[in-house]
Design a protein that fits this description.
seven-stranded mixed beta sheet, 6 helices, alpha/beta, four-stranded antiparallel beta sheet, Rossmann fold, 11 strands
Length: 242
């Protein structure tokens, strides 16, 4: 049996004290991996349904083969790992602003996604996703610098609840338009949110993209015995820029 609690990694970052913990949860009888930033819980391996659906729903809207995918935010790795299940995916670049998070995966500290860092289709890149959008450099993430077929983002809690104020520009029409310009024709932008669908943000998506939809992802909460829900926004750019 596993030890009841273990801190696997901890470091001071520009955003605060970051830690990766493993604990044995007697209620569900499994090891739970959790990420904290200072005193705030960012993610838990008990709740990964919506992170996986971010990949599935986003790629379901993508067209063609040989897909070039960028994942904004590595975290526990479940979104990126699910992307690899789609046989159309040729490359996945995962961008994370915290090098320590990338190091967790390279050290194999997360056994359920241990193969992610060694998959030949995957590149883990230490960079600021939001700065890349603003500067028009998202394409740098693709192996050949070509436009991206899908950009899947799980960084902030929601378009209104941000980890850092510098992220806010992405969620305004100008930021969404900057991202859309870096997508391939019919390219997909998908976003995870911890909040219910946000009407004003849905309107901003619709003003920039050819089509946009909000999906409510419901899943069991093993701690309460009830149900929880997250939102996945999926938007697609026009098939032609002309």
């Amino acid at each position: 049996m596993s030890a009841l609690f273990e801190e696997l990694a901890a470091s001071a970052t520009r955003m605060g004290e970051l830690s990766l913990r493993r604990r044995r949860d007697p209620a569900v009888g499994v090891d739970v991996y959790e990420v904290k930033l200072d005193d705030e819980f960012l993610m838990s391996s008990l709740f990964t349904s919506a992170e996986k659906e971010l990949a599935r729903l986003g790629l379901a809207a993508a067209v063609g083969d040989g897909l070039r995918v960028l994942v904004g935010g590595l975290g526990l790795g479940y979104t990126a790992r699910t992307v690899l299940d789609d046989p159309r995916v040729a490359s996945v670049t995962v961008v994370d602003a915290l090098e320590d998070v990338i190091d967790w995966h390279r050290r194999g500290l997360l056994p359920e996604v241990a193969e992610l860092a060694s998959d030949p289709r995957v590149r883990l890149e230490h960079a600021d996703f939001f700065e890349r959008v603003r500067s028009g450099r998202l394409r740098d993430a693709a192996p050949d610098g070509a436009p991206l077929d899908a950009v899947l983002v799980d960084i902030d809690h929601s378009p209104r609840h941000l980890l850092d104020a510098s992220h806010a520009s992405l969620y305004a029409p100008e930021g969404l338009a900057a991202l859309a310009r870096q997508l391939a024709p019919a390219g997909v932008f998908a976003l995870w949110s911890d909040d219910p669908p946000d009407g004003p943000f849905e309107a901003d998506l619709a003003s920039v993209f050819a089509d946009a939809m909000s999906h409510t992802v419901r899943f069991a909460n093993p701690l309460t015995g009830g149900e929880a829900a997250n939102t996945v926004y999926v938007a697609r750019s026009p098939r032609s820029r002309g």
